[in-house]
Amino acid sequence: MKLNALSERWDAEVYIKCEQFQPIGAFKIRGASNFALQLPEGSKALVTHSSGNHAQAVAYMGQRLGIPAHVVMPSNSNKKKIQNAKKWGATVHLCEPTFESRVSAAAALAEEFNAVIIPPFDHEWIVEGQATCAMEILYDLPEVDIIAAPLGGGGLLAGTTLAAHHFSSKAKVIGAEPANAADGYEGLEKGERITSFTPNTVADGLRTTVGEVPFEVLKDHEVEVLLAEEEDILPWMKLIWDYSKTLIEPSCAVPFAAMDRHKERWKGKQIAIIVTGGNVDIDQLF
Amino acid sequence: MKLNALSERWDAEVYIKCEQFQPIGAFKIRGASNFALQLPEGSKALVTHSSGNHAQAVAYMGQRLGIPAHVVMPSNSNKKKIQNAKKWGATVHLCEPTFESRVSAAAALAEEFNAVIIPPFDHEWIVEGQATCAMEILYDLPEVDIIAAPLGGGGLLAGTTLAAHHFSSKAKVIGAEPANAADGYEGLEKGERITSFTPNTVADGLRTTVGEVPFEVLKDHEVEVLLAEEEDILPWMKLIWDYSKTLIEPSCAVPFAAMDRHKERWKGKQIAIIVTGGNVDIDQLF
Question: CB distance from B284 to chain A under 8 Å?
Answer without folding.
Answer: no
